[in-house]
User: Fold BrnA antitoxin family protein from Caballeronia novacaledonica.
Amino acid sequence: MKKKIPTFKTDEEAENFVDTADLTEYDLSGFKRVSFEVEKKDSKINMRLPAPLLDAVKARAKLRGIPYQRFIRETLENAVTPEPKGRH
Assistant:
């Protein structure tokens, strides 16, 4: 049975743990994937949507645990990112 990840009170405690612990000994199944947005957002858009569509977007974003505007941005990014060759 794997060890449970301890709770940390500071970032410094967490960083020290990651630097010194053998993470293969710990249960990491409770962690979810996260992505970091580092690109500057310097352009704005304004669009009108039917209320039910916006409600559905907000609900889906809430399920993912992210703000709805980030969900919209990720959806747009996925729509314009080319698929790897060989996949259709």
